TrEMBL record:
Belongs to the glycosyl hydrolase 20 family. Residues 36-60 have a biased composition (Low complexity). This is Family 20 glycosylhydrolase. InterPro entries: Beta_hexosaminidase_sua/sub, GH, GH20_Enzymes, Glyco_hydro_20_cat, Hex-like_dom2, HEX_bac_N. It holds the Pfam family Glyco_hydro_20. Gene3D superfamilies: Chitobiase/beta-hexosaminidase domain 2-like, Glycosidases. Residues 28-67 are annotated as: Disordered. It comes from Streptomyces griseoaurantiacus. It comes from the Bacteria. Residues 68-182 form the Beta-hexosaminidase bacterial type N-terminal domain. Keywords: Glycosidase, Hydrolase, Signal.
Length: 535
């Protein structure tokens, strides 16, 4: 992996009356490359300082600080001499903008400090500030003169700075003197949960949101419709909803909690396959072959206008429940296309394809048109759609998937799957869901095995989209990031608590690679020990 260009910058930190001059190598650019986490510091003399509002001790000398140990690791740290900072009695969290009130109140509660609102910072305080221009997820965390300042151009970056501080002082630790400059390499850092095949309680999902927020994830995917269940309350089609489901009130609380932690919730209603729960309530929409036999369960007959209407009703309804910018349309594993002769097996689909696209059109064209139509529905609500890579069919003759649809690349094993470089070379943006590393499939059916954090940490990067081979570095900027997915194929294989324990280290390993895809400084054992220490 090629190293990005480096920006050489000088920093000066004042701590307790003395100055430490530091030179920091700061990575430039938004995409991949290894980044530079090291800092070179030269002392200009010993210094004394304050900690949590304590009086200065002019006679005390301090060693040059070391970079904080956090997950994910910070990208750059300018060292300085001083005592560092930890929360103390009477210390406050203050803000320079009312828009940071939620972040300030959350941090104050976590560190058992007082929230002081908009006020000037004094010794012992933490100040949160909107300041500067650039990546909204970037931030600067400065520890000096007995106080902390976390600043960034956007609220999300300031929030991530509070997560760094929270980890630094966890268990009585001290935030080291100096300046952290930090930002993510990838804009999509996600976790996807299959709540269709297995019902997860709202409380369990909320706990995952808190965990994800502390790790600087910014996306939670909810796959809530499949053959085994439809798990969110519906007003337009209550007949499709499973007995065990989340109410809209519960979903709103999840979405609100996620928003407080700068996590967008991305819903998925997969179609035109994986709709068994919907078809159970509308059996006339089940696809049947020329002999009247049903295709695989959950396969919709997309030649029928009623099929589009029910799916679009649901998409329109849930657009009001999920306010984020992303939407997953599924689009994978449409079983009509796995027949040896799809047109002969499903003549109604073949006829509909010709009617829509003209002579020579195929069922793959009709299926692609279906995906484009659903993409248009969510686009009307201001959403950016994505679909599974095997929903982009090679065999199309007349239709092509809209350029606005991002590729969720998960496998090379399915019908119609292509190499990831084909999508990247065509200019598409891709999100990495590589099933070799990022699929936690309950019960380990077929060839799936539970992924380990160690393997992700040592072998995976965002460029490893399929199998174990990375795509060329020239495609780095088109890879939006990655998503770790829990699928519940054998729903009884693990309890909720077992799932939480099983995904704990994979989530930490993956976010480290999404924040900085370069080779980590810590060994796996050191990383594991750090995770155990900071929680």
């Amino acid at each position: 992996m090629g190293r990005r260009g480096l920006l050489l910058g000088a920093g000066v930190v004042v701590a307790g009356g003395a100055v430490a001059a530091a030179v920091t190598l700061w990575p430039t650019g938004d995409g991949g490359g290894e980044g530079t986490r090291a800092s070179e510091s030269a002392s200009a003399g010993a210094s004394a300082g304050t900690s949590g509002g304590a009086s200065p001790s002019p006679s005390r000398n301090y060693p040059l600080s070391k970079a904080p140990r956090t997950i994910p690791a910070v990208r750059a740290h300018t060292a300085a001499r001083g005592p560092g900072w930890r929360p103390a009695s009477g210390a406050r969290v203050v803000v320079n903008d009312d828009g940071l009130a939620d972040e300030g109140k959350l941090l104050a509660g976590e560190l058992k400090m007082t929230y002081g609102g908009r006020a000037g910072a004094r010794a012992g305080d933490v100040e949160l500030a909107l300041d500067g221009k650039g990546d909204a997820e970037s931030y600067t965390l400065t520890v000096g003169e007995g106080r902390v300042r976390i600043a960034g151009p956007g609220q999300s970056g300031v929030f991530y700075g509070t997560r760094t501080l929270k980890q630094e002082v966890h268990g009585g630790g001290t935030a080291p003197e100096g300046v952290v400059r930090d930002r993510p390499a990838k804009p999509v850092r996600g976790f996807m949960l299959d709540i269709a095949r297995k019902h997860f309680t709202a409380g369990w999902i909320e706990d995952r949101v808190r965990e994800l927020g502390d790790l600087k994830y910014n996306e939670l995917g909810l796959h809530f419709s499949d053959d085994q269940g439809f798990r969110i309350e519906s007003d337009t089609h209550p007949e499709v909803v499973s007995e065990e489901h989340l109410t809209k009130a519960q979903v709103k609380r999840i979405v609100s909690l996620a928003a407080e932690r700068h996590i967008a919730v991305v819903p998925e209603i997969d179609s035109p396959g994986h709709l068994g729960a919907v078809i159970d309530a509308h059996p006339d929409l089940q696809l049947r072959n020329a002999g009247g036999a049903s295709a695989s369960r959950g396969t919709l007959d997309i030649s029928k206008p009623a099929a589009a209407k029910i799916v679009d009703d649901l998409l329109d309804e849930y657009a009001g429940l999920f306010p984020g910018s992303g939407w997953h349309l599924g689009g994978d594993e449409y079983q009509a296309l796995t027949a040896s002769n799809p047109a002969a097996s499903y003549p109604q689909l073949a006829s509909a394809a010709v009617k829509r696209y003209g002579a020579g059109a195929t069922i793959a064209d009709l299926t692609t048109g279906w995906l484009n139509d659903r993409a248009a529905v969510v686009a009307r609500h201001g959403r950016t759609p994505r679909a599974w890579n095997d929903g982009f069919y090679r065999s199309v003759k007349k239709a092509g998937v809209s350029k606005d649809v991002r590729v969720a690349y998960w496998t090379g094993k399915e019908y119609g799957a292509r190499q990831p470089t084909e999508y990247l070379a065509a200019g598409r943006e891709v999100v990495n869901y590589n099933d070799e590393f990022l699929y936690y499939v309950l019960g380990q059916p077929q060839t799936f095995v539970y992924p380990t954090g160690e393997r992700i940490y040592q072998q995976w990067t965002p460029r490893v989209l399929r199998g174990t081979t990375a795509v060329p570095a020239s495609y780095e900027d088109r890879i939006r990031g990655g998503v770790f997915a829990v699928w519940c194929d054998l729903s009884g294989a693990q309890t909720q608590n077992q799932v939480a324990a099983g995904i704990r280290m994979p989530l930490r390993a993956m976010v480290q690679k999404l924040w900085d895809p370069g080779k980590p400084e810590l060994s796996w054992k050191e990383f594991q020990a750090l995770a155990n220490r900071i929680g």
